[in-house]
Amino acid sequence: QDRIEEDKEKGAIVEERRRVLNEWLAWREREEEELKAERRELGLPESLEDHDEADADGKTNGEGAVVE
Amino acid sequence: MRPILLQGHERSLTQIKYTKDGDILFSCAKDQVICAWFSANGERLGTYHGHQGALWTVDIDPSTTLLASGAADNTVRLWDIRTGKCVKVWNFDTAVKRVDFNEDGTRLLAVTEKRMGFLGTIVVLDVIVDVEAEQSDEKALVITCDESKATVAAWSYLSRYIIAGHEDGSVSQYDGKTGELIYNSPAHEEGMQVTDLQMSSDRTYFITASKDKSAKLHSSRDLTLLKTYLSDTPLNTAAITPKKPFVILGGGQAAMDVTTTGARQGKFEARFYHKVFEDEIGRVKGHFGPLNTVAVDPLGRGYASGGEDGYVRVHAFDRGYFDFGYEVEREVGGAGAGGY
Predict the structure, then answer these.
(1) Is residue B261 part of a domain?
(2) What is the CATH number of the domain that holds B51?
(3) Which positions ≥6 away from B77 have C-beta within 8 Å?
(4) Those residues with Cβ within 8 angstroms of residue B255's Cβ, 6 or more apart along the chain or in another chain
(5) Which of these, B150, B128, B6, B125, lies nearest to B75 by C-alpha position?
(6) A20 and B329: CB-CB below 8 Å?
(7) Which residues of chain B have a CB within 8 Å of the CB of A21?
(8) Contact residues for B39 (Cβ-Cβ < 8 A; gap 6+)
(9) Which phi and psi angles does B252 have, rounded to 5°?
(10) Which partner for B156 in A47, B161, B242, B338 could form a disulfide, CB atoms 3.0-4.6 Å apart?
(11) Mean of the pLDDT values across residues B285-308?
(12) Rg, C-alpha atoms of chain A
């Protein structure tokens, strides 16, 4: 019985973390898109790092690795 | 994480800054000297002499051409990084507590102290990123803080805003061009000074540290509070790590009795928190006094801390640091590797 309770609790924590992480990732994506759009409007390269080392923003392992 | 200990300052550290490529770090202290160090081996590259008072702040333009500094001698100085020559001095009525270059290095903000007869201000100086250039004497913009003086400030993305932290614990967003106050909102406990403010690498969000023992993450766009990190000691500094979703906080009780074993053993700690989940995930001991400043290598390879004890400790992140991740982070891809 205790183990079931424990697992339930653990499940809830993981579920909450998943929610918090997804919320953060969604916010980042919106911010990044907006910043890109604003940079385009000003005639600037899309990313500050475009002319620098390609992985300077640490995205080599994630899905967002390709900046077109 | 075995640190390199940099011994070059005779008094407490006030700020540390890395160059954009992370290869060199600059430190300033109350001993009136700025030091430049190779971050990889701790070798001292040089010193910058000229200030006649405690140094409070340094910053480097993104091309690593010019160094700016602010001090208790009421000046902001601009230095040729290569030669160590001072190429410009701007005079103010009071001490300069913080300088910050915008993302292309053409504008420098300076936060000036409040003193009898003078309100605290945030001044913008136009800078030509060329050591030979004649720099303008004029102040391009002066923002007067008549509510509560600014203690720290930084430029947002695209230099659109100047973000300031105040003595009363609030944060402000000013228009970067006109200096108009757009928002002022309480961020930390009323009357608890904002002690540090550092931007994320793209300057769309920032972290504040406060004497109220907390650090907070806010959006540069509208000052929305994003995250809160709670500690058990007054904080002097906070930094955001690129590559890994962490933040590093530093502080410590200044009044702590130095004869206690804690202080003797160098128990003052840098605290690591998960940026998204807000949990504390680790501590790094070592300083003999409160941490006054923490800076992170912009390429995410390590960090440096500067203490009230006069030491700079440079740490290279190890395998355990890069491997660390929560289960749910692995689900979203890349074993918590994302620089989100």
Answers:
(1) yes
(2) 2.130.10.10
(3) B50, B51, B68, B69, B71, B86, B88, B89, B90
(4) none
(5) B125
(6) no
(7) 276-277, 326, 328-329, 332
(8) B18, B22, B23, B24, B25, B297, B302, B304, B314
(9) 135, 155
(10) B161
(11) 97
(12) 19
